[in-house]
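Attaching the record inline, Q. Sequence:
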Amino acid sequence: MNGTAAATGGSASCRFAHYFVVCGVDTETGLEPDDGAGESFEQSPIRRSFKSKVLVHYPENTDRIPFNKDAVNMLCLPRGLSFRTQADSLDPQFHSFTIASDDGTRSYGFVHTFYEEVTSPQIITAMQTLYQMHHVEHHSSSSASSPSSSTCSSASTPSTSSMDSLASSLEESDAESLTSGVSGCLGCVGSFDAARDTLYVSKALCLFTPLPFLQASRQFLAQLHQAVTSQTAPPLPLESYVYNILYEVPLPPPGRSLRFHGVQGPIVCQRPGPGELPLGDYPLGEAFSLLGVNNMVKLLTCALLETQVLLYSKGKPMIQFSVYFF
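Structure, as predicted:
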């Protein structure tokens, strides 16, 4: 079955995908600290999290599944915006999530996160200013704690201020110490100098589907990202591929397979029939590698005994989650 041969304009419940979403940095609002990340301001700004925004989503809305912008933004980028430089790893990442509505209807989200070069002068200047303020504060606190220092000047960052006021608060003496400090910190972890570093920020491509077609969605998003970064233009505009998967690719009938065109090649998925096991497109190897054999056995035992299970990440509070089996 070829998805591109399906009739256009079918109901959303019969389509392969409900929504296509892009989340990232909003150059108009600038950088806003992510207070929910629970991070310390002692960290370098290049290592902090900032608030992300839903930049675009198609379609605007569907009848059965209303679009929740705040929830989608949090699930697509649970750690907020992450900044990197050319010295850091820029490998793309992939994760998935499930949204359950009040009536029990589920939507499955699949997210391809990559790092895009920052071209906005406002964002680059804001990050440079934040790093300068952080360096001055760190330098001043170090001087104050040193027994050999007779005088010190402390620089504090106002809780609510614009980037212009932050930049203007740098005194000449602080700027001189900053220049010498930054020049001596070339290549340091968490350092940033706009004159020598290339700034990158995380960006998420997300696809919502009514069934958990993980591998097919992962391939589509990865091909889309490769087309964006490739020097060779795809045969059709990228919008055509997004339109195709949203409006022209249908759900495969139970017990049938579906083949549709991605940006760089065909993509195949299969839907189990009524007498078959439910669709399980998630690789078990990753679960075993993350949790270990003993924990996986305990998890499956609890699931079979219909016990409530809580999975808690050791990372940031925003990525804790719970799974309930009934």
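The longest strand covers residues 106-117. Helices lie at 69-76, 121-145, 163-168, 172-183, 214-229, 238-248, 284-291, 293-304.

More tomorrow.
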